[in-house]
Amino acid sequence: MIFTSLEFLIFFPIVVAIYFLLPNRFRWAHLLLASYYFYMAWKPVYALLLLFSTVSFYLAALGVDRYQDERKRAGIFWLGISLNLGMLFTFKYYNFFEAQARALAESRGWHIHIAPLDVLLPMGISFFTFQGISYLVDVYRRDMPAERHLGLLMLYKAFFPQLVAGPIERGTHFLPQLRKNLLVCNNSQRIRFEYERVVSGLRLMLLGFFKKIVLADNLSLIVQPVYAAPNEYSGISALVATVAFAFQIFFDFSAYTDIARGISRVLGFELIENFKHPYFATSVPEFWQRWHISLSSWFRDYVYIPLGGNRVVRSRWFLNLWIVFLLCGLWHGANWTFIAWGAMHGFYYFLTYIFTPPARWFVAHTFLSRFPALCRLLLVMLTFSLVCWAWVMFRAENLTLAFAIWINIAHIPVDIFEYFNLVVREGVHFAPLKAFGLGWLTEPAEKLSLMPAYVFGLTVIYLVISHEMREQDDGEIFSTWSTPLRWLLYVFSLTSILLLGRFEAAQFIYFQF
Amino acid sequence: MPIVDSIKCQEIRDLRKVCTRGFLLLLFFVALQFVELFILPIDFFTFRVWEAALASPYRYPGMFYPNIYVKKNKEYGDRYRSDDPAQIKARPVEWFTDSYGYRNRPEIERRPKYDAVVLGDSNIVGSSLDQKDTLTEVMAARSNNTVYSYSIGHDHISLFFNDKRVLKKSPDLVVVESKVGNWNTNDSYLFNFKEAPDGSLEIIDRTAEIERYYAPNRNLFFEKTESRLKKQAMFHWLQASLATYFSIPSADKAQLFFGSSRAPVVDATGWRPYGWIVSSGAFKPLVNGLEPALAVRATGPNAYWHTERFTSVKPDGKVIVRFQAKNSITPSRHRIYIFENGSYRSLGEIVTGSEWGTFEIPLASSPGSILEFQIDQNDDWQWLSLKDVEVIGGGYPASIKKSPISISMLNWQGGGACQGAIKRVQDCREWPVVKNGYIQTPTLPPSGSAGMQLRFEARTDTPTQNFSSIYLFEGTQYRKVGEYSFDAQWREYSLLVQSDMKATTKIQIDFPASVQKLAIRNFRVTPADRLDK
Q1: Which residue is closest to B300 within chain A, CA to CA?
Q2: ipTM score for this prediction
Q3: Can you tell me whether residue B129 is helix, strand or coil?
Q4: Does A370 touch chain B (CB under 8 A)?
Q5: Cβ–Cβ of A500/B244 closer than 8 Å?
Q6: A467 is catalytic
Q7: A283's torsion region: left (phi>0), alpha (psi -120 to 50) or beta?
Q8: Do A166 and A260 meet the contact criterion of CB atoms below 8 Å apart?
Q9: Which one of A332, A411, A429, A467 is the catalytic residue?
């Protein structure tokens, strides 16, 4: 089920109404049933995978918790990890590696036959597998006890707001909330229908719907044609589409997180914040502290630090970073483009390490030291450019198309020079939109469309507001304003959703991961 | 227990608060809807009365709401949302519908008899027409008769012959609209009939449907409200007015390609159209491009690049036009055409990118047809570059089998004093270039029945971006037959000119700008005869 579907509009109030009407002891079962129904609305049989994953982690955690002998604990731990990574590999990566192996064999003249699997990638498999791994690792590290209530663990893994696209909740953060709120015997301590909390959750949901339906889905219309056939569009079109994609993926993914957090808040739970204004980061490392925080912190805690982190020799540190980012890329999808995207971010870390000291020296010894705001702006722009450059690889369907986009963008100065040459020397009428191949943005179907202008304007407004309120949670954008202004914003958001929304649009981007 | 009660009370209060505020928010939109449906005029949010009056999905049995009167001071046409101001035609219109939802003035129903009834579609309803300009009112005014519009669409025939209400008005004349598209190209009018066992057509029985329309217990108010609610006129009007419509440009451009884009076959060199026409465009030569090699930019509407005439030398008339093309700044589309014996047909479009691409356009023509190939260039902000244009299986529409006649380089006119040394009469002569100057051949030998082929070698002292025009003089008349961009290297140029056999002919070559010298050698003429079919 998709949050932006009509089914969800019916599903959500019913689930919430029943939730608050039920006595506390039945609520976990109600949420569990609702969560499985939510998942099964997509493809019922894949709920078995979710169940298998949950039960395997449950049993493994119990085993790890029960034994004191480290060898036994490690054996059970790795068995649990292997089972789930094996499932993830089978459904997500098998066909990719099979294709690579076949291509390699054929290039060497060997004829091997490995049958590809005809399976659909289960929605959210990477999310719920990583969530389970974090739980098992935490139990293994004795950071938390194993959860003995199977229903509660099932709910932790299947909690419908964050089931298919995160945030990747930690057992240490979410399980205590479930236990505290759903297993209390005293009915007076149950989660109550509190105006402030519920409305705050609804506000977050509204913001999420606005970001997804108005901004992300419309931006996708600008991105899609250019990335489908980059050779048919100009360099500036490729640049516009790439920047549009940077915002599309941000709005799309952060919208999902906002809606997920909003629903959870209505139900009385707090999910972790997944985004903290990532495009205001002044360096790539800072970007990763603000972007998909639940995933980056997962890799930090469960891969990077166990590898030694930065407390190793420098070469090993770089290697650790590269391993983390290659895995991060691979986590997003079984495609060389994702691996290359991860590798690029690893390279950016390396560049940051190399160039930060001389850049600091340069700033300190030039006029720039008197303009810290300007320095910050330049760094934000540089970071955003680097991130966008890598988004090309993330969005393109294959390496060839990604290179075509890059080449198109690199050709922009030549285009501009040639065009101005025509304008200045030959008196051609100045029509930059047409000249730079952007005419299709305003008249894709022989009709003037202002949609790109609206989306651009709203994006800028959002960025200005979120920059002003960068220290606060996104949902608080509404709450700090005066009542009339807030109501105006509600009406504006709903009207924009109705007028500019694309209700036939596709699902959230991160569902595929 | 009191604590629990107090909590419950607080919860109920909070729930009530959320519901009340949610309802208030919703009320804003409900109120807008109420105002639209019950307070504002029916056509307030529509650009045309047609959309306002259409009763879809209901029928009364006409297709519009019954008993409406709309006077719109400005009704826009179907192309209102188009960018082109010429398409936006606003005019005042007046609309009446009768109590059955047909476009008639209500008083017509009080007439005991209809002299004529007209059955038809929107043409007869009078979409975008004022009431007095509808066909039925014009007929009535001119004949002084009562003419009733029974126009609803393609199924009007069966409805009419089952409609006792109209039949009892004993019309003397029934007019049925028939036009291409209704009867001829689709079978929609056949929905009015069913096939009898003997193969004949009978009008289908729709009495039950008619009875439903005339049922006294129909809730017309509810139906109308539901219909208008479904239309969401305000919503669509806002979307249209704010120009929020946006669709993905067609990504499936493969269908627009005609031919293929691939590396050329090296050994299949074809005929090259050295003579060509650029219309409404500026052009410049391409340095290092295989001739013909030029870049074209539109300077006015309908700009194009056009080859000289050629024909297929194959018995089946098939040729392949092959060329390389690119745009200087951004990819764009260019329509391509073939002219066959003067009649042209579109071959589709090519999309030229910012890198060189090879295009192959296969053509089938009648054997012996005279062909010309054209590429449109509508971009005035960038150059469309073409090079290596050749026609595989093509050739001049003339037989050039005779021996070439060398033209002496002596006695050329114009161009000032010759500076080139002449060892043989056909050897090079070099002229200093002067502004607006030219050189002209002596009188050429008589041409053949299909004109003559000119061949010569030329070079300039420095590479140039400018063209030299080539003129053919026939007696006192002259016309441009081609343009060449000469290179700093010796290169051969070839041109077939259709000249008057009886006139004395000369060729004039204008000096190119921005060079100092132009040299010509080996100027030959071959009379050409018509190709035997």
Answers
A1: A428
A2: 0.75
A3: coil
A4: no
A5: yes
A6: no
A7: beta
A8: yes
A9: A332
- The contacts of residue A347 (CB under 8 Å, 6+ apart) are none
CB-defined contacts A:B, below 8 A: 135
Residue B231 CB neighbours (<10 A) = 17
Three-state DSSP at B117 gives: strand
H or E element that contains B529: strand B517-530
Tokens standing for residue B122: 């929107």
Helix H segments across B422-502?
A: none
A501 and chain B in contact, CB less than 8 A: no
Region label for A104, one of left (φ > 0), alpha (ψ between -120 and 50) or beta (otherwise) = alpha
Torsion of CA A97, A103, A105, A111, to 10 degrees: 110
Token pair in block for residue B352: 């030229």
Residues on chain A touching B81 (C-beta within 8 angstroms): 447-448
Q: A428 touching B, CB under 8 A?
A: yes
List the single residue in B with minimal CA-CA distance to A200: B18
Q: Do A450 and B18 touch (CB under 8 A)?
A: no
Cβ–Cβ under 8 Å, residues A341 and A329: yes
Pairing relationship of beta strands B294-298 and B281-285 according to DSSP bridges: antiparallel
Residue among B270, B257, B396, B277 at smallest CA distance from B323: B270
Residue B32 with chain A: CB contacts under 8 Å: none
Cβ count near A110 (within 10 Å): 10
Q: What is the pLDDT along chain B (533 residues), one digit of tens a residue?
A: 455 566 677 878 888 888 999 999 999 999 999 999 999 999 888 888 888 999 988 888 898 999 999 998 887 765 555 555 545 567 788 999 998 899 999 999 889 999 999 998 888 898 888 999 999 999 999 999 999 999 887 778 888 988 888 888 889 999 988 765 555 455 667 778 887 777 777 888 888 988 988 888 888 899 999 999 999 999 988 888 888 777 766 543 333 344 444 444 455 578 888 777 888 888 887 777 777 888 898 887 788 998 888 888 888 889 999 999 998 888 888 999 999 887 888 888 888 888 888 999 988 898 888 899 999 998 888 899 999 899 999 988 777 777 889 888 888 888 766 666 666 666 778 888 877 788 999 999 888 877 888 888 888 888 777 778 888 998 888 888 777 778 788 887 878 787 777 778 999 998 888 888 888 988 999 888 876 54
How long a stretch of residues is chain A? 513
Quick check: A452 contacting B, CB < 8 Å? yes
Task: Provide the residue type at B343 as one letter.
Answer: S
Q: Which of residues 214-253 of A touch B (CB under 8 A)?
A: 218, 221, 224-225, 228-229, 231-237
Q: How far apart are CA B185 and CA B181, in angstroms?
A: 5
List the one residue out of B304, B285, B314, B319 whose CA is nearest residue B350.
B304
The whole-angstrom separation of Cα A237 and Cα A235 is 5
Q: Does A437 touch chain B (CB under 8 A)?
A: yes
| Strand B116-119, strand B173-176: pairing | parallel
